[in-house]
Design brief:
The chain is α/β, with parallel strands linked by helices. The chain contains twelve helices and five strands. It has a five-stranded parallel sheet, sandwiched between helices.
Length: 281
């Protein structure tokens, strides 16, 4: 009896993963297909169960959807508060100390406005694994709100109108908005570099563990690109699963072509199973 495992991210491809499972069961039988929510016994330890199943697996389907690379994480209110609200408060304090309390040169505020958001931009990426566009949007939000709040603070301190009254004041607000945005986004982008990422402890990622285990055990892997997703570049993948980027992939769409795409996938699985004794030698 063949053993076929399905690796996927719930937030990325749970619905289509269930459809693929049902079609594979119709072809190979229920006991031949492993997918976590159906195959792990109640109360069972998922990591241990996966290791046991992988020792008997003949083929692994790695389902890759649009959010597979970044883990499909959602930006929760807690994450937003930690990485946007905290630097916002720190910037307000810095503005008060530099401009209102000590009346220092504005150059110091510009420097602080870049440096304070830097680590929070990096932390935002490590917590959410969102795209650079989302990181930039977070920086813009922080920049606009913080610059506006600093302008209000200065207006109250010097008894001036809260709304900027001249082009120079508008340009000054815009300058701080850009500096804060660049600081946050620079940290967000630096956190993606391999040289920087090695300094941080990797989050536990069971999809990564599943694929790395399959590669280590030389289990045949079929990358399945869902609904137009593309294969991630090798340099964007963790080092221990980069080899998957060079595997021949197949496409599956959830629309009218689902049946024909599944027929092609099942044909590929049959070929692997037919050649299994040769591949295992």
């Amino acid at each position: 009896m063949p053993k076929i495992a399905i690796s996927y991210r719930r937030a990325d491809s749970a619905q289509i993963a269930g459809r693929i499972r049902d079609r594979l069961i119709a072809r190979y039988g229920e006991d031949s297909v492993f997918i976590d929510i159906y195959s792990v016994p109640l109360g069972g330890e998922f990591p241990q169960h996966v290791r046991e199943v992988w020792s008997k697996t003949d083929a692994l389907l790695a389902l890759i959807g649009p959010a597979w690379l970044r883990g499909g994480d959602k930006i929760s209110l807690t994450v937003a508060m930690q990485h946007l609200a905290v630097p916002f408060l720190l910037l307000l304090i810095a503005h008060y100390m530099i401009i209102n309390a000590f009346d220092l040169d504005a150059l110091f505020l510009s420097l602080v406005s870049f440096l304070v958001p830097l680590p929070f931009g990096a932390g935002f990426y490590w917590k959410t694994r969102t795209s650079p566009a989302i990181g930039f949007a977070g920086g813009v939000a922080l920049g606009v709100i913080a610059a506006a709040a600093m302008s209000v603070s200065a207006s109250i301190r010097y008894n001036q109108p809260i709304w900027p009254s001249s082009t120079l004041e508008w340009l000054e607000n815009l300058e701080y908005t850009v500096i804060i945005t660049l600081g946050f986004w620079t940290g967000n982008m630096l956190a993606r570099l391999p040289q920087i990422s090695r300094l941080f402890k990797e989050r536990e990622d069971w999809v990564q563990v599943e694929i790395a285990t399959a590669l280590d055990k030389r289990i045949p892997i079929i990358p399945v690109l869902l609904d137009g997703a593309t294969m991630p570049a090798s340099q964007s993948l963790p080092r221990n699963i980069r080899e998957i980027a060079y595997r021949n992939a197949t496409q599956i769409h959830s629309g009218p072509d689902f049946d024909s795409h599944m027929t092609r996938l099942i044909g590929g699985i049959d070929t692997i199973l037919d050649n299994m004794p040769i591949q295992r030698d």
